[in-house]
Amino acid sequence: MTPGQTEAYVDAAAAALDLKLRPEHRPGVLRYFALAAEMAALVEAVPLDPHAEPAVSFVPVSPAEPES
Amino acid sequence: MSAVELLLKDASAMADAVRSNAVSAVALVQASLDRIAATDPRINAFTDVVRERALRRAGQVDASLASANGARTRELPLLGVPFAVKNLFDIAGLPTLAGSKIERDSTPMRADAALVRRLESAGAVLVGALNMDEYAYGFTTENSHVGAVHNPHDLTRIAGGSSGGSGAAVAAGQVPLTLGSDTNGSIRVPASLCGIFGLKPTFGRLPRTGSYPFISSLDHLGPFARSVRDLALAYDAMQGPETAGLHDPGCARRAVEPTALQLTHGVAGLRIGVLGGYFRQRAQADALSAVDRVAEALGARKIIELPMVEAGRAAAFLITNSEGAALHLANLRKRPQDFEPLSRDRFLAGALLPAAWVARAQRVRRLYAERVARLFERFDILLAASTPCAATPIGAEWFDINGHRLPVRANMGVLTQPISCIGLPVCGVPVWGAHASLPIGVQVIGAPWREDLVLRVAAALESAGVAQSPVAAL
């Protein structure tokens, strides 16, 4: 992402979440978002088969046993 | 030996002394409370001391020893041992702060965390709660709300984080045993910088009920101590899934697998490798020297690379950034000014990450875990530095790693993050002499559920004098 794209995305996503970024916080937020984008590029570069499962799996929750 | 002298020994020696009536639990706990009062103004490890509760509990231990139940009480492994916990563990009667200002408004807890209860059931006595990075999002414990934790071995330097108080309290001899949490390195980093032993068990081994969460699929809890036998005793006392009431859905339904009796089994026959590539490129010469000393002592000569390690670390970063921010989104909206200034902007950015990045990170993480599992078909133990360097000065923003100028606060965990990302058990062992005056830790890493092996190797290093944990001269 270019710095301009990062700014546009951050402002739009913050608005979508109703997260009002204060002027004194915004430069830090842009810097950390850019760092996350670098990390995302490393993750995107890994080829994944459609069957590649996520690390977190769901366990159904059974109702409590009735007390005897 | 007096209670004051005993306090400089390990928890096992203290329990033996209480067991043999050489010292009372009350005297031992009082000595711990006195040392905290005398040294903590310089260390800043404690955020709460539960003096009355501790003395009452110690009195109960002594009374039980003198009662008809005395023989049974005498068998408790941590008899009369004072301990303290990172302030994200629930303590009855106190709000659980998790290092924050915001949680000061929360209701005092009605019960102790599961692991606090288990350690007290093993005879230990809780004396207080410990300083940490806010919401566990940091590696330096420069907490802006209550002040930084000072490294007992050099008061001008950081203790590491996020369990900085847990590391410093043990290094300072205030207590012989503490608990912390480790999401991306928060047990192994302070253990390294404070020169003590730390155990991050396999993900899912110990129940987290009654502890403030950070990242559900990455959070681990574990002990710090100045000897491996203490780690093993505490770890064994805390194992096992919960059988009644609230329970941690992330805790595996595994039976207790005790380790303490296997510590002397040695390392013969174990296949031990040294992590190269990523792990050597991101460490200063002192840290590499610490790893080399450990490798030489163990006869480990094979250098191997962890497959997919950079992508795995990136996955942990994204999952942490996004899920951590989502957890605190309501307060990030309402009261951002009350967050720790050192991590607030990182939290705010994390709230904005595209879902597709995080979903892909979880799939990459699993693939990475599968690749590393294949490596463990050929090795039992892997070695790597715990931190890129020894403790940095409090307030330092940057350090130099192999010619790259990098921010300290984001990179002190660069060597631990890829390991916890896939839940491997690690014992951090403290090595002295690699740096001119400070300790540096080495990670002894095992395959999932092989805490027995990482503790055995750590015990062998301790018995050979390669790893040791002296109390700081204060």
Please, could you describe this protein's structure?
Chain A is mainly α. Chain A has two helices and no strands. The model of chain A has no long low-confidence stretch (mean pLDDT 93). By secondary structure, chain B is α+β, with helices and mostly antiparallel strands. In chain B, a hairpin with a 3-residue loop joins strand 4 and strand 5. At the A-B interface, helix 1 and helix 2 of A face helix 12, helix 13, helix 14 and helix 15 of B.
Provide a short characterization of the protein structure.
The complex is a heterodimer of chains A (68) and B (474). Chain A has two helices and no strands. Chain A has 68 residues and is mostly helical.
What is this structure's SSE topology?
The complex is a heterodimer of chains A (68) and B (474).
Chain A lengths: L2 H14 L9 H19 L24
Helix pairs in contact in A: 1-2
Chain B lengths: L2 H4 L4 H9 L5 H19 L2 E4 L1 H15 L4 H5 L7 E5 L27 H8 L3 E6 L11 E2 L3 E2 L1 E2 L2 E5 L5 H8 L5 E6 L5 H7 L2 E4 L19 E6 L2 H11 L33 E4 L2 H4 L3 H14 L3 E3 L4 H19 L1 H6 L6 H10 L4 H21 L5 E5 L12 E4 L2 E4 H4 L5 H4 L5 E6 L8 E7 L4 H13 L11
Parallel strand pairs in B: 2-3, 2-8, 11-12, 11-13
Antiparallel strand pairs in B: 1-3, 4-5, 6-7, 8-10, 9-10, 9-16, 13-17, 14-15, 16-17
Tally of separate helices of chain B: 18
Oligomer: heterodimer
Using only C-alpha atoms, the radius of gyration of chain B works out to 21 Å
Q: How is the largest sheet of chain B built, in terms of strand order?
A: 1-3-2-8-10-9-16-17-13-11-12
Helix content of chain A: 40-55%
Low-confidence spans of chain B: pLDDT under 50, at least 5 residues? none
Distance between the termini of chain A: 61 Å
Q: Which of globular, elongated, flat, extended, rod-shaped describes the shape of chain B?
A: globular
N- to C-terminal distance of chain B: 20 Å
Low-confidence stretches of chain A: none
